[in-house]
Amino acid sequence: MVTGRLANEVRLSSTKMGMFEWRYSNSFDGAERRVMPHVELAKRFKDLDVEVELGFTPEQTATEVQRCLNCDIQTVFDAPLCTECDACIDICPVDCLTITPDADEATLRQRLETPAVNTEQALFVSEALPLTERVMIKDENICLHCGLCAERCPTAAWDMQESEIIIHHVEDMVTGVAK
Ligand code: SF4
Ligand code: SF4
Questions:
Q1: pTM (2 decimals)?
Q2: 157 CB less than 6 Å from ligand 2?
Q3: Which residues pair with 124 in a beta bridge?
């Protein structure tokens, strides 16, 4: 008997393929959305079951996907690996990282080069770092998901991981197999 729902899950998997290679494109094209070509109106009225959208060519598709902002790619931090070399902080193009002594949240928000002013967005605060017991903090609100911190990090303390939201169906509960 089914008495409730399985909780939703978020699964993370590393996108790392090599020293400086990810299985996602970490830049983006700021171009406007391309207009999808449609079947002409006259033909659509004549053949009511015609598929209206013609689709992009492979070349148009290849350029359109570059507009993706990689919102599903998360920066994941492994504090025990961090040697506090500051390389990730130096390279971050939006200054959303810093290493600092732990403090209350309001104080930490002000310690970033670009203060984290959007209090609706949770601030990332790591566990204590092994060398000095300071913490890595990150303003998720302005992170570009560019992956430069992970590319620069010599110890792989930062990783770029793809997130997948799993909403279970009832058959997962019956079979016990989560898809
Ligand atoms: S992914 Fe880019 S923007 Fe985000 S913390 Fe790393 S370097 Fe900064
Ligand atoms: S680059 Fe890596 S090791 Fe250096 S401070 Fe950043 S996370 Fe730590």
A1: 0.80
A2: yes
A3: 138
